[in-house]
């Protein structure tokens, strides 16, 4: 974290996004949240607040995201987040979220039986509160996304899935990326740590790779 804090804006002051997969215990999650706040201080972006009380409603789906210029010098946490309406029963400092994969290639491969048996895991409220702009969400299809996805939700596509959509549904993918932020991860077959060609995804408007 010290290295990130020191070098984050050495070359440019445009925002830095940290994609964090949090799989540890509640006490460790709280420690991670504490360290992020302590190390990054005012650089940590914490000001984007959803107006909706329920992430399943559509009233906020068309709300615009801040522009990169608005976020200069800021570090943004991308991860899972508790629903805004999650009840704080007995003053619990954690809640439960559905432990679904947010990568489209993974969710696409699941059978109907597997997708219907939802698993849950605990998420610290302290860590969840740091996810203010890019909330991880699974991708089903473009029609569902246009009707249900909110502006602060970000979907992840594997390299293979992204290429497939960029080839078969290029126009819809472009329209999708006009409204939402998408992230493409290198294929699991890249065992030599080679990089994907970002141009294939930039052509349809994908912002993160």
Automatic annotation (TrEMBL):
PROSITE patterns: PIPLC_X_DOMAIN (PS50007), PIPLC_Y_DOMAIN (PS50008). The keyword Hydrolase applies. InterPro entries: PI-PLC_fam (IPR001192), PLC-like_Pdiesterase_TIM-brl (IPR017946), PLipase_C_PInositol-sp_X_dom (IPR000909), PLipase_C_Pinositol-sp_Y (IPR001711). One of its GO terms (molecular function) is phosphatidylinositol-4,5-bisphosphate phospholipase C activity. The keyword DNA-binding does not apply. Gene3D superfamilies: Phosphatidylinositol (PI) phosphodiesterase. Keywords: Hydrolase, Lipid degradation, Lipid metabolism. It comes from the Eukaryota. Its EC number is 3.1.4.11. It holds the Pfam family PI-PLC-X. This is Phosphoinositide phospholipase C.
